[in-house]
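Changelog excerpt

This revision adds worked examples to the README so contributors can see how folded entries look when concatenated. The first example is reproduced verbatim below.
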Amino acid sequence: MDRGRATRSRRGTVSRRSTAQRRGIAIGVTVATVAGLAAVTWPALAGEDPPRSEPAPAGPARQIVDALRRDLSLTEAQARARLDRERWARGTTQRLRTELGTGYGGTWLAADGNRLMVAVTDEAAAARARAAGAEPKLVTRNARQLDTVKAGLDRIADQATPDVAGWYVDVSNNRVVVRAQPGTESAVRRFVQGSGAPAGAVEVVASAEAPVPLIDVRGGDPYVIDDRARCSIGFSVVGGFVTAGHCGAPGATTSSPDGVAQGVVSASSFPGDDWGVVETNDDWVPQPVVNDFDGGTIAVAGGQEAPVGSSICRFGATTGARCGVVEALNATVVYPEGTVTGLTRTDVCAEPGDSGGSWMSGDQAQGVTSGGSGDCTVGGITFFQPLTEILEVNQLTLVTTANGPSAPPADPPAATEPPAATEPPAATEPPPAATEPPAATEPPSPPPGAECTGHKARKAATLGAGRRQVQPAGRYFRAGHGRQVGCLDGPSGANFDLVLQKWSRGGWRTVAVSAGPTADEQITYSGSAGFYRYRVESRRGSGDYTLGFSVR
């Protein structure tokens, strides 16, 4: 933070409810505000020259336009026209959701970004949609019914196996989609049947997605949690800022990268949700801007939620500005750490280091990065936590250009641009998982290979310094009731740890750890039948290792 911009903050009272209010099926529009990718103030209509006494409103932020041109293959004129159309669509969606009542089945923008589609259950609702300038589509289930189907799956989330990546409402096809690893569709359909979902309301789709929280980052201007982990600032609220929940637990202290005390995590939720709130001290002034990763800042003007099909952009410390479209609202994601519901699914790529970063649709803030699958080389999908829930549950006020402080900027931006204050989204260096128990044993260091022979399964791999790998082959194995034995034979001079985890209640739970001073580790664990996996972690050094394991 530029300490010269301001030295005092206007503090607001931050109060919280004890439990999160679950969002309804996010097919409509609610007020969602979050650290944003780019702020946009809308231009005057073509051909209109405002009076000289009234300055014309600024156009969309250059960063948003450029990112849309690159990621959606649009011309500049097409990008600007789409942003203008989407502003109209947000307001129309909100109005129709209220007016149509039980006849409303959701809204989405067509692939061309121009037509606003509205799912309706009767002709009367279709007529009202046409009158509003939208294109109706007759469907069987309304939004409330789709929400009920998804809620049924949410109730049995702890019964999902690791083969389930998550589920969400597909408004354009009037169904709920469950994504499963290829080859496991039959087993996942049996899981769906356990929810009591009506026939035809749920489709199981094969997908290689394996979402993980984007916490393992390597760059950017971070804020530091408990002097050991780093994450990205989401965006400003009165009294502090919001970020991803997997970054820190309540009571954790935060500081700037150079060690200046910043604040404390006053509330967080993960898994279940993925949001966190940091209450800053008086030396930090929350500003209504986000870092544009190009030497400037972008203003946050509001938080009206974008419908499915809208363009959306993200700023992240690792990959900068990236854009795509909203694919689904109120999605459930099965992370290795547990199930998270109420997220928004996008086709925007992200990588470790983008976690906690800002999302914007037009000039409206949308949410903070949670996790995803893939990367920005081959493409991927990313989920974000909508800000609506964070603000409502914690009774927070988003800092916007309408209510933010008026401190002068340190560097003179454009006349309409507010001062910068927030730190750029940050990288993370993953600490040992907070839920992991202390080391179970500190075994002696056997000669290479001496203790890892005779196991039914053996895996050989190479591990980089500070990295972690899941075995076998990034997957898991089924074990019956009995004693499990795992043996790690690693390189001399390195320090590797061996972790055994069991799938329980929708997430991976650590059941045994061997964390001796070398790269040779052993685990013996007696437990019940279920799904298990090993994780090899480098505390120091790198090199080849062999993992042997069996159930006896």
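The second example, added in the same revision:
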Amino acid sequence: MKIRRELWFGLTFMALIVIGAATVLLSAETITNGHLGLLMLSLVVVAIMLGFPTAFTLMGMGMLFTFMAYDRDWHRTLDLMVQSAYKTMANDVLIAVPLFVFMGYLVERANLIESLFKSLHLALARLPGALAVATLVTCTIFATATGIVGAVVTLMGLLALPAMLRGGYSVPLAAGAITAGGCLGILIPPSVLLIVYGATAGVSVVQLYAGAFFPGVMLAGLYILYVILIAKLKPQWAPPLSAADRVVPLPPMSQRLAESPTAHALVGLLKGRRNAEVPFSHVLRQLTIVALPAIVFALLAGFSYRAVTTVEAEARYDIEEIGAARGSSSSGASSGGLAEPPAEGGLQEPPSEGGLQEPPSDGGLQEPPSGEAASPPPAASDASTLAPPPGAQPSAATSVAPAAAAAAEAPTYRAAPTWWIATFAVFGAITALFYLFLSFARLEIFKMLLASFFPLMLLILSVLGSIVLGLATPTEAAAMGALGGMLLAAAYRRLNLAVLKESVFLTAKTSAMVCWLFVGSAIFSAAFALLGGQALVEEWVLSMNLTKVQFLVLSQVIIFLLGWPLEWTEIIVIFMPIFIPLLDNFGVDPLFFGLLVAMNLQTAFLSPPVAMAAFYLKGVSPPHVTLNQIFLGMLPFMGIQVLAIVLLYIWPQIGLWLPQLLYK
């Protein structure tokens, strides 16, 4: 019987793990509980590679070794299981997981991806490798909106792969673009991976979302740059679109307005004589669509200009610091405020004679005499205390209070900053170029983008913007995103009972998997710590005397290698609880480490033999597309991922600038 290469690789990897664990145990003079913890870790990895469910493997191994760590006390073992399950149920961060997943399934079923891909490949038709670039952009947007890698890769395999193969594209390049682009959903927020890492490592999900945005955009940009360079250097791998493929059919009304598809749209719409054959309502609708970019630019410029140039005056109150003198007289006496009591007549010790004494033994308590003791104190002293001294002027603070209140109400203005001028100069130039080269064909492409691209971008930006700007928590934003997904599906007439039922079922299935993974991870981590495995690993790492750079390189190499046999969920819930306690010893920010891990875990979907993206694509690809061709196409994109990790480490502000700007 012939054994496939992937099976050989898996068996070899498991054999290496078993041999390594046996070597460590046999070479130890005394087998301690820490060695049992490492044995548990090895057995968990082997069991997962054999195909056992990850969550229940973690729970089973954790319960077994916890029973051993507690000296075979099954009461405490069961208590640990219950506490771990309750801790997961009480974690409010995980509420965002089913809501984001539900939004993704609804957006997927709105069937936007076909029109999105078509409009993007027509809009980018003049770029080298236009179909592959449009595939990457479509995958990036759709993966960001859904976060479901399998769905994006499968849909793009059905839609983009046949189009690229008909266009003469290389099979490895086409397969690599689809699989790499589809995996971006686990990095670019809103990402379930970041929620799971945040809940595991105790890092703010809001800061993770803010930090992962620019690294995700950078990685997508590197993919696009690679495809354009390959199309330039090897045009036979990515031939340009033919003239027939770039033709945009015009609707009948637009054909009456346009002498040709390349005629200027704005001029054609404003002509009086030729518009006589076209209803005025149609012309008005087209002009409204044409005016949208200018309206959006004007609104953004106006509101942002007011925000960056207005300086709100600080509120001033008629309250002075305690002890501050409002004025001074020639005698140096304070005219108001709290002051030290005078030296003479202030609080003093009672005299030794006539002070507080025991009452006389005879007579006991008596009424005071009706004379001097009953007379009230003179009111003149109080009046002299409360009245202002003669000749004192009104307080300066009192006289300027109305002026201060008026100054507090009136904001001041400053010049617009340079970055604002540069940003809107670029946007203004883009808007001007849009109108300068707006033909009727490009107007149709713009209308297609309005129907597919902009609704998704609006949904993504509203969800991310509300989280990053602090307007909503991730859970609240996820709820609004789920509502937005329902509205989007309803707007495209795809929302019905069957779609809703299927989306709810898939959401419950995915959420249950994530939550049981957390329960298993909590039990496994507790057992690993009880056995002393964490202390053993920490002692071993610290004994190597690594620098911060060496530790980061070692940890990322281990995660990269673990991505070959394991998926990202298993790496996060099993190995992150081992790495996170080590970060303080090397001065590593858990937020920055999480960004490196999220970037690195892109390889978990692209690295054979457990490259799930490759199997998703193979399931919907034509028979002549082999698995080896798909693997070959993914390797350059894995190299780009390694390059992106290096760039993020050299310039950490790529990921840390936005969180520091918003939450410093």
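Reviewer comment on example two: The longest strand covers residues 310-311. Residues 327-336, 370-387, 395-399 have pLDDT under 50 and may be disordered.
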